[in-house]
Specification:
Length: 100
Amino acid sequence: MILAPNVLLGLFGLPETGEVWIRVVGVLALIIGFYYIQAARMGLTGFFRLTLYTRFSVILFFGAFVLLGYISPPLLLFCAVDVAGALWTWSALRKENASV
């Protein structure tokens, strides 16, 4: 999303853009990804527990955006990926708690 954002936009049937917003989102995703990697390396399970709230809420926000006509339905695929990741994280945290 930083270097070639229109490739990703095309995959979701969105129009190409020359605006900077998509690159800003790419930078934010890169920074958040860095936090996740470092939190995992440090074993900060509390951080991952906190992320469950926001990761599960993404589908509510995107669903509302679709209903309001702000975004197109294919963007809900991002929600599916995020919810799947949140379920995986939740399962891993439950297993860790069960083994303690």
